[in-house]
Specification:
By secondary structure, the protein is of the alpha/beta class. The chain has three domains: about 5-45, no CATH class; about 50-225, Rossmann fold, CATH 3.40.50; about 225-420, Up-down Bundle (Dehydroquinate synthase-like, alpha domain). Helix content is about 40%, strand content about 20%. It has 16 helices and 15 strands. Strands 1, 2, 3, 4, 5, 6, 7, 8 and 11 form a nine-stranded mixed sheet that branches. The protein is globular.
């Protein structure tokens, strides 16, 4: 299955003259020296398109998906590529490096592997080492990689973020083809347009928006994942179902036991449905590069990001998101935005999937105040503008609020304490 992601909208980047329009106001005002001031309003419409494949055995020589993702736009030439692999993936799939070589050899008319694949540490903690980006830049400079070269990244969401960021700022953007290997990355972050690294103890403090050249979701990699990582990735599916698709939420409830058991059939459907909703939001929200303050796909994330930092990534991202969803659903109930049955159904589904609703980090206080609440201010800073938090109105529909009552949020968190047992 191939899903095309097409992003349309206004961008402040000047990358093309197509669709350019200008508006000038002259002699409307005087400058400090009395001379007329000229105003030129630049408007550029940029369209991005990239394929998202759902397949199995992407590196099997007869599988065309990777070749198509790299070469379809320019089939007349060979494409220089460099592969970056998550160390956890390399260990779980010892056949992978050999398979990459065999695939490129089979498709040597279109692909050229410029060097041995580079294996890097994965996991969220790897994003804390910004020196890795410099290491990648050094290697790519040695190899003469240019804006037409392709970086193939095979790994979980953290490595996609890290290597994707390095590629995005090299020559102002190398082409990136992602092969996400985790449930979370295949369903959510790996099909999106963001990349970044952590700095100053803040998640994705340094980053940018860089749509990939293509995405290939390979179901074979899911078979190597630990059950904890499979389940953690499902939190993003619960999130997007809650704010975008009530039918999908009902499907998750109906298949919760199979999903908790990591059944591959339902898991594959979860990934495709979640990814499709994510892609639709990016393409149709009118703000694919998040120029405004609203960020509905970060429902539950103000607490999640803070919990990840507080636990030094002991919590998986998906586990932190699950706790954030439970907190915000309970807060929505306590503030009258949604009814008690709705909030209870959220907590019940998370619990049935095997996701946590509580972590001991939530009990940490400073000056009599829960430390996790600092995540609200940090989230606002990351978004910019006024505080905008997506909460739940009903299953399938979110609502944006611009004020959080800390006393009520404290109460919501306290109500989750028994769930840790």
């Amino acid at each position: 299955m191939v899903q095309n992601a097409i992003l349309r909208g206004h961008s402040s980047r000047l990358g093309t003259e197509q669709g350019l329009s200008a508006h000038e106001d002259r002699d409307r005002a005087a400058g400090g020296d009395g001379e007329p001031t000229s105003r030129h309003l630049q408007q550029v419409t940029v369209e991005f398109e990239y394929p998202v494949y759902f397949t199995r055995d992407a590196f099997a020589p007869a599988n065309p998906c990777l070749r198509e993702a790299i070469a379809t736009r320019e089939p007349w030439r060979r494409h220089r590529l460099f592969a970056v692999i998550d160390r956890n993936v390399a260990l779980a799939s010892p056949w992978l490096v050999g398979a990459i070589h065999a695939y490129v050899e089979r498709h040597h008319d279109a692909l050229e592997l410029v060097a041995e694949p580079l294996v890097l540490e994965g996991g969220e903690a790897a994003k804390n080492d910004t020196a890795v980006a410099t290491r990648l830049h050094t290697r790519w400079n040695e190899l003469g990689m240019d804006r037409q070269s392709v970086i193939v990244i095979v790994g979980g969401g953290a490595l996609l973020d890290l290597a994707g960021y390095a590629a995005a700022v090299a020559h102002r953007g190398l082409r990136v083809v992602r092969l996400p290997t985790s449930v979370l990355a295949q369903a959510d972050s790996g099909v999106g347009v963001k990349c970044g690294v952590n700095l100053f103890g803040k998640k994705n403090f340094v980053g940018t928006f860089a749509p990939p050249f293509g995405v290939v979701n390979d179901g074979r990699f899911l078979e190597t994942l630990a059950a904890r990582d499979v389940v953690a990735g499902m939190a993003e599916a619960v999130k997007v179902a809650l704010i975008r698709d009530g039918d999908f939420f009902a499907w998750l409830v109906a298949h919760a036991d199979e999903l908790a058991a990591c059944a591959l059939g339902p898991l594959g459907e979860l990934i495709q449905r979640c990814a499709a909703l994510h892609l639709r939001h990016i393409a149709t929200s009118g703000d694919p590069f998040e120029l405004g303050s609203a960020r509905p796909l970060d429902f539950g994330h103000w607490a999640a990001h803070k919990l990840e930092a507080m636990t030094r990534h002991r919590l998986r991202h998906g586990e932190a998101v699950a706790i954030g969803l439970a907190i915000d659903a309970t807060y929505a109930e306590r503030s009258g935005l949604c009814d008690a049955a709705t909030a209870a159904s959220v907590r019940a589904l998370l619990g049935r999937l095997g996701l946590p609703l509580w972590d001991e980090a939530l009990a940490q206080t400073a000056g009599g105040r829960r430390v996790v609440l600092d995540g609200l201010a940090e989230f606002r800073e990351h978004l910019g503008g006024e505080l905008t938090i997506t909460l739940l109105r009903r299953i399938g529909e979110g609502v944006e609020v611009h004020e959080i009552r800390e006393s009520l949020m404290e109460d919501a968190i306290a109500r989750l304490v028994p769930a840790r047992q």
